[in-house]
Design goal:
It contains eight helices and eleven strands. By secondary structure, it is α+β, with helices and mostly antiparallel strands. A hairpin with a 2-residue loop joins β2 and β3.
Length: 248
């Protein structure tokens, strides 16, 4: 990734006086000359030290007005102790996720394993790879939840876990899919199932059409999309919020 390469070139910022400021177009042109393989998503003037924020390959870095130096790392406001870079990175990522959002009701629920806990009144969907360690961690946290219906979409990523498609099909074809899923994810016990018609390829195709490129990917009933595993406390917070939004 560009940022890792660039880190070796990082140096401290020096403010040069008496030099004419460049504009975004000039900075973009100079950057492209030096790092032609990097993808510049945006360049924005900040209110900090005359710096320009650059979003490069999805990550925030900074440059001075004349593109003399590049800063890779966190910019922290000492008065408030706010990590300006982290806050901005979260804002950018949230904006991207909102652009990918679609109504929860558009999920192909007939292709999912439906797991009901308690009264099942709250709803959430998870695209999960059975051989993904983060997915297994998430399953342990999901076990702590109550009164929830979980739609599990088998989404094997063959490039990372070559045997995941086969395991996904075995879980789907088991007599009790929920039990087979729990046994494998929580205990590592693989099901021995005969072959059957399964929706794995359809789920993968659907997921790719929605730009799902990692597991787990979580969809809450209010449309919020969360890539990656999250702690049980955060899961419960988002689940309660999405459930409340649906009742309003």
């Amino acid at each position: 990734m560009f940022i890792r390469i660039l880190t070796a070139l990082t140096c401290a910022l020096a403010l040069l006086s008496g030099v004419a400021c460049a504009d975004e177009a000039s900075i973009r042109a100079e950057f492209a000359k030096k790092y032609p393989q990097a993808n510049i998503e945006s360049i924005t003037k900040t209110p900090y030290l005359g710096l320009y924020e650059m979003l490069v390959d999805g990550e925030v870095i900074y440059t001075d007005p004349d593109f003399t130096f590049l800063i890779v790392g966190s910019l922290i406001e000492t008065k408030t102790r706010i990590n300006v870079t982290d806050a901005r990175q979260r804002e950018i990522e949230d904006k991207k996720l909102k652009a990918l959002a679609f109504p929860f009701e558009q999920l192909p629920f007939d292709l999912a394993i439906k797991k009901v806990k308690g009264d099942g009144s709250r709803k959430v969907a998870v695209f999960s790879d059975p051989d993904c360690p983060y997915c297994r961690k998430l399953e342990k946290d999901i076990e702590k939840l109550t009164d929830v219906t979980i739609y599990i979409f088998l989404f094997p990523i063959k490039e990372l876990h070559p045997k995941a498609p086969e395991m996904s099909r075995a879980i789907w074809c088991a007599p009790d899919r929920v039990k087979a899923w729990d046994e494998y994810m929580l205990k590592g016990a693989a099901p021995k199932s005969p072959k059957c018609d399964d929706p794995v390829d359809k789920i993968v195709t659907f997921g790719q059409s929605k730009k799902i490129n990692g597991t787990p990917t979580i969809f809450f009933a209010d449309g919020k999309r969360v890539p990656g595993a999250i702690p049980a406390e955060r899961f419960e917070e988002l689940l309660s919020k999405s459930s409340s939004a649906g009742k309003s």
